[in-house]
Each structure stands twice: as C-alpha cells, then as structure tokens.
Amino acid sequence: MKKTLRRLRTAAVALGACTLGLSLLSMPAAEAASVQPLAPQSERAPESEQFSVEGVTTVGELRTVDGSLSRARDSRTQIIRHPGASYVKVHFSSLRLAQGEYVTVASPDGRESYRYDRDLDRATGSDYTTDGQPGFWAMSVEGDTAVVTLHGSRSGRGDAATIDRFWRGYDHAEIKQYNFSTQSVCSTDARRDVVCYQASHPTEYARGRAVARLLMSGGGMCTAWRVGNTNRLLTNKHCFSTQAAVSASETQFNYQCATCGGSNPGAGTKVSGATLYKVSTGGSGELDYALYSVNNFTSIQGFGTLYLATTATTTGTRMYIPGHGDGSPKRLSIFEDAQNGANCTVKNANYNTWNISYSCDTSGGNSGSPVLNGSHRVIALHHLGGCPSNQGAKAHLIYNEIASLIDNNG
Predict the structure, then answer these.
(1) Which positions ≥6 away from 221 have C-beta within 8 Å?
(2) 86 is in which domain, residue-wise?
(3) What pLDDT, in 10s, does the model give residues 87-96?
(4) How far apart are CA 2 and CA 182, in angstroms?
(5) Are residues 284 and 247 in the same domain?
(6) What is the pTM of this model?
(7) Which residues have a Cβ under 8 Å from the Cβ of 390 and sit 6 or more positions away?
(8) For the chain, what is the domain count?
C-alpha cells in the first residue's frame, strides 16, 4: 500500500513467482551437476538501476552477471543461483538463435519451464517482459535457481545467447527489513489464507480468484484484479502509470496456499502486461487507479472477474478485501480482529471526496486490492494505510471515469 511516511531506503525489488510451466524440459541431473552457477560471480547493480517507487513493496534486488550460451556441448547450459532467493528472473541482452534452436529458462526440477524461440512469439513460445532496453526478460522462476539451456542440434562455438542481469527475490526477513511499515494492521491481524475460507465463505473465496499479485519492472509489488468481462485489470496509479511500466510487469493469478496456514502456494499463472488504457489524474490520495490489459488473456479468464459498484456505498456496510499484502500468497480480510468475530465494515463512506475508510487489515503489497461489499461488488480500490483509517478510492467515481473502457455488466 502507499506508505504515509518516506521510505527508509531506495531498494532493489523482485517477485517470488510461481508460474505455469509451458514446456517441461529439465536438464539431466548429471549435466546440471557439472555446470558451475554464475550467481557467485554476480554483483549488485548500481543503486540508480534498482526499483524505487514510493509506496510499492520492495521484494528483491537487481544483480549483474556475465553469462552466455554457445553451441559447444560444454557451454549449452548456464545456472543462475542465488542461495535463499525466493525467485530468479533472467535478462537476455541478446538472442542469436538459428532456425530450430530455442532456449528454456526452468527450475531445476523442470516444474517451471519457459521456452524462447528466435522470433519471441508468445503464440508459439512463452511470455516475457521488456524494459525499453535491448533484449528481454524471461518470466520469473520460483526459488533460488534458474537453469538456462540452449536446445538444438547445431554444433560450433558461436554464442547463441547472452545473459547480463537477473533479479533475485528477497526472503521474508529481507522484505520486512527493506520496507518501512505503516501501521495498517489494526490491532490483531485477522487475515488468513484464502483457502481457509473455501468452506465457510465460498463466495468470498471464489471472488478472490480474480485477484492477482503484480510485479512491476522486475521489482515492485502490488495487487491487481480483473474488472468486467473483457481484458481489463485495475491496480493503483502509484503502482504504475506508464506504458513502459506495464510492458515490464508480470501479473500472477492463483498464487495462494493449498492448505490453510500451510505456506505451500500453488504454481499460479503469470501473464505480462500489454496495454495501459487510463490512469487517474491527481495525487495518490485521490482516485489513484490504473487500467490495463495483459497478454495471453485466455490463460487467466478461468479465474473469473469482478464488477464495480456504480453507486456510493454507506457507512456500516459489510466488506472484505482479498489481496497480496507483503507480497505473500493471497489472503482475505473478512474479520476485523478475531476469526468469526466482528465483520469488517465501512467506517466512513465519505471519509473525503475520493475515499472511504475502514479498519480491515492490510499491509504493503495490498495496494490495488479490491474492497468488496456483501453483494460482492467492488466498492473501493484500496491504496492508503494508517489505522484506524485505512482507505480505498470510491469505486463508483472510478466507474464514472472508465465506464466506456470496460464491460461492467455482471
């Protein structure tokens, strides 16, 4: 969420990301054992290259490395490893593949694997992100190791690909260390993994499936969600506000634990940002929204969607918030302090011109989360923390500005 105080640091940022494996091709164990990881020779990129946006949770750092893949048999694989990292996201500065060759970026066990052909065609290969500089970023791989492999039958010693950078994800302790926390958990933290409510609150659980974790520019962490029936998603303007930032983003659906309190998030499905349609005017204390689309939209349609309320809410309305506070697997805020105690409610439906207020628990990374009422319509877009008045931008005002760009009939 947007911090109300200045950050203590400008930091690198990255995302621990579970992904949908597209081409499950793992390197033989004997070959993997013979390749020395590149990460011990990596260096932290200059501070000016690290991600730093006020109010966006930082979850990792950018590293520089000198690696390449060649057609020589002993140079067809590179291992990028940073011990303890929650994810690795690899950057290719160049790709010089011959016809029939391709590169995979995979986890060591092959459960995650992304294939990149010479033409970088998302229709035939895997998704990727760009940052306006030469080359491209592969989708992130969960864990501390990415195995990069050249596939094809051509022989020779010419370089086929060059790796120059990677993001490595912080662990939980580092995320806490490198993010200044505004007090947005009001008294006891009553949030729980979404799966904890699958039986007791099945509709809230189901609506939460449309909510995703958002990684910006390889580093910043927020929450985003599908709005309406077409390829449209909403998050906060303070998370991103330019087409370049959208193109550099990953939106990850179904990143949630399989068991209540189990710390075992599923693989999830990630897509890259496509088109920025509209951002709000004014500062981050006002409506603070960004409307965008994603590539490979069909792969996320099955997670459902949410719809905006078109009239103002009222004080006392029951509410709940699904989101990725602290970059964690998806959690639901349904109760204010204790499970099965008082429900979260709107404390002030007219806190100011743009916002409603509530004491429902949130934290950094919840920026962009939907605030839903008991009828499961979105009544606000969460973006500001500070108990007892956590705040969300009024959804009906957002609807008035983007109605022509979405299909809100549901």
Answers:
(1) 13, 15, 56, 57, 58, 59, 213, 214, 215, 324, 327, 364, 365
(2) 42-173
(3) 999 999 999 9
(4) 9
(5) yes
(6) 0.88
(7) 1, 184, 186, 357, 358, 359, 360, 362, 382, 384
(8) 2
